[in-house]
Amino acid sequence: MSLINAGRLLEAFMPLFLKMGIDRIAVGDMRLAVPALAILGLMVLRYIAFNLGRRYVREVGVDAAFDLRQRLYWHLELQGPRFFSRYTTGDLMARAINDIMLIRQLIGMGTRLLFVLGFSGIIAFIFMFYQSPSLTLLLLPALPVFAVIGWVIAKKIFTQSTQVQEGFSSLSAQVQENLNGIRTIQTHAQEARETDRFAASSDHYAKNYYKLMSLNSGLTSAMLMATGFTTLIVVGYGGLQVVEGVITLGTFTAFIFYLNMMLAPIKEGGVMVTLFQRGGSAAARIFEILDHEPEIRDAPDAAPLDEIGGAITLNHLSYVHPAANGEGWPALNDVSLEIRKGEMIALLGRVGSGKSTLLRLIVRLLDPPPGTVYLDGRDIRMLPVSQVRSEVAMVPQDPFLFATHIAQNISYDNPDRATEEVWRAAESADLEATIRRFPHRLETMVGERGVTLSGGQKQRASLARGLVRETPVLLLDDCFSSVDTETEEFILSRLKTLRQGRTTLMVSHRVSTARHADRIIVLDEGRVAEIGTHHELIAKGGLYATLERQQGRRDELVQTLTETTGGEA
Ligand SMILES: Nc1ncnc2c1ncn2[C@@H]1O[C@H](COP(=O)(O)OP(=O)(O)OP(=O)(O)O)[C@@H](O)[C@H]1O
């Protein structure tokens, strides 16, 4: 910045030599080499100072945007369910890209314009006063007029900028949602309706943007008119002073030069105000996110355990999802359980009975109330979140794959893991034969969200990712729903051997899965309805026994249909 200001200072000396030249010409003195060379030298120096200074200021803008982007990204990584139920992915992407770009422009261009033009305005004012105090004082009444016009329009620009940026966010959210749901849109033949819906949002955005640009041009024109009017008065009065011999022609020329220099920041007012107001509203949108404290974080007195065995205790655990804002039914209601280290537990229950919620609370993807979830006798809220998540692996209900190799997807937590371990996990998830058929085996790319794999293959890759970690606690959330019962039997028998001595909780809807567990917990409307072994629960004749009968009849029906249709059912 100081280099650019130095350039402005050099520029301010030019009119002095211009004045010297003109005054000499006026009296027939043709010794013009000194002023001409001085002006040339000053121009060269000014050019060098400006270029170096501008490059530096741009670098500052780019560096600041980089830092901000990194901070924002890290902050997003730490957020929990309340945050993600409030902000859409499209909105967050718009803030991360568009708003940070506006802040970069504000720093790189806006501050340069403000400080540099402001500085040159002050310098010009001093030089003008030195040349002609009376002409300079003539300008003073005009300054409040500039300020009032600028202030009124700037406020409107701020409000309009916020609307434009919010419009961009909702456009981005719409695109993101539509691309994610493209198969649903196409299978329902809704392409035209979605395109119309997008056109309406896009049109709304374009109108808001147009209004912002109109305000910007309005401000620029108002400033140009006001500065033009000021110049007219000065030129009129100054010209009169030249005619009357109060000032020389050289002084008058130099004065006009300084006047232009002083009015430059005002003429650039439209650009500057727009840059500042857009950058300001972008900064407000970014800081709104940065001010959102991550809801799941380490307690100040959290301390890690030396080793995690895998015993889990739930003590009167009740939970209402944050998106429900404390209203509605609790997803879990007064659940108390003791799960011993090394046990294999099956969680069974109807749709929406709270099975996934329970698993997510144990891995702290949701925050349980204090004193309700214990790992090896320690309240998990008193353990560092990173320890809980690295010792408790969870395979979610919806498998998610990254757009990279199969191997990197399976060994996601540790890219340097030995290939044999990856193969072993793939084999346990019954994925080994499938991978061997792929052209590049473990190095096969799976596309965005694993689009090149079938539903069952994705589910098994996600299972292998959980198994490969060999954690003391493994949570499987309905991971066998897309695999046939034969494959499921194979995986479960491998799982039993693999998880010997380690705790495993698996959610399922199928009695055929649950019967493999040491104990079965049946949830009903967020409460524990039954606990016991397969035989105990069948003998009890409760909900589990009913489910077993229903599923048994369904399996028999499928079997009969398969036989009568020759396997085409
Ligand atoms: N993010 C959320 N915000 C608000 N409510 C939620 C959220 N996730 C789940 N719920 C509600 O909590 C209850 C329990 O849901 P949960 O996903 O734990 O059930 P589930 O037994 O795993 O069901 P499923 O067998 O269909 O997977 C349901 O009533 C559900 O609507």
TrEMBL record:
Where exactly are the transmembrane stretches of this chain? 32-49, 113-130, 136-154, 219-240, 246-266
- InterPro entries annotated for this entry? AAA+_ATPase, ABC1_TM_dom, ABC1_TM_sf, ABC_transporter-like_ATP-bd, ABC_transporter-like_CS, P-loop_NTPase, Type_1_exporter
Q: Which Gene3D superfamilies match?
A: ABC transporter type 1, transmembrane domain, P-loop containing nucleotide triphosphate hydrolases
Similarity comment: family membership: Belongs to the ABC transporter superfamily.
Recite the UniProt keywords alphabetically: ATP-binding, Cell membrane, Membrane, Nucleotide-binding, Sugar transport, Transmembrane, Transmembrane helix, Transport
The name this protein goes by in its record = ABC transporter related
The keyword Electron transport is annotated on this UniProt entry: no
Q: Which terms does the record give in the GO molecular function aspect?
A: ABC-type oligopeptide transporter activity; ATP binding; ATP hydrolysis activity
Subcellular locations according to the entry: Cell membrane
GO cellular component terms, semicolon-separated: plasma membrane
Organism listed in the record: Parvibaculum lavamentivorans (strain DS-1 / DSM 13023 / NCIMB 13966)
Could you say which residues form the signal peptide?
Answer: none
Residue ranges occupied by any ABC transmembrane type-1 domain in the UniProt entry: 9-278
Entry membrane topology: Multi-pass membrane protein
Residue ranges of the ABC transporter domain?
A: 312-550
